[in-house]
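Q: Here's a chain of 361 amino acids. Please give me its 3D structure as tokens.
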Amino acid sequence: MRKIGINEIDYIALGSTVLGTGGGGDPYIGKLLAKEAIKKYGKVNLMAAEELSDDALVVPVAAFGAPMILVEKLFSGDEFIQAFEMMESYLGRKIDAVMPAEAGGLNGVIPFSVAAQKGIPLVDADGMGRAFPRLEMVTFTLHDIPVSPIAQADEKGNKNIYHTIDNVWGETLVGATTIQMGGSCAIGCYPMNGAQVKKAAIHGIVSYAQVLGEAILDAKKNKQNPVDALMQKAAAIKLFTGKVSSVKTIIDGRWNKGVCEVLGLDEDNGSLLKIDFQNEFLMAFKDDVPIAMTPDLIVLIDAENAQPITAESIQFGTRVIVMGMKSDPQWRTDAGIVLGGPEKFGYQEQYIPIEELNNQK
């Protein structure tokens, strides 16, 4: 267990945006809420999953909705506490620790606000090792852990508790209500005991986000190449260098769906990269040939300042470096590919690991 203060939040927020693979929402508001809570209530204990007692009650807390909505409809912060307290009331016992549902973007830092206010540890683990657009797309589902009960709260004071027949119905029902709430809300979900967290979660992801953020910011401070530093720490593959030439986005329910096209520069001059996204970057095609696919991570980096770019913030003309990262081994199992692979999103392509697509080890 170690203490997380205001300074570490900057690193974790930046690294979480890398792991968000275009999704998870802009972490800015989450970072402000986390810093304010730490300033007021004190530093947060970051606990390794292995440190949990087997009977501890752990609840992931997350922002839920369309990232594009979050640009204009801000969270107050109270809705996360409301969802947390509803879960405690419904389960009839104190929650011992909170954790991120996903490590991506906003959701990589929001749980720090709840942990600080409630004076409980935050578990250094999540259910994705990245961000995914659907509630059932977590490693907890791979271990038959139910999403229910689900506590839902919005900034207006509306609250719900759901018990769904399976995890897909959790996405369906909470997603429908979220649209009526204005496109975003706070949720608590997948209540687990410590033994389940140890078995089902992706361990060390918050610390990994911090390492990635440190790589970028420390390289800048030391006048080194931050993209190179990030790629080394992430064991990433450089997929493409170019300039954004087209972005087409629609809002479909609570998802931002679209295609980003990047014209090649330097060694990729004359080529065209297309990236499909549904909140997160899902598929990358170079000259119509796939070079990266979900559940592996596709990361878009601004070549000028080494900032990871979220799908809703892509701008025409930005010079970018596109890199790929291996997904957690749980996603590379047969069950993981069914839950988070290309066919889950309607693609005909079968999953091929990113290192094989790019002839690397």
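Q: Can you summarize the key feature?
A: The longest strand covers residues 237-252.
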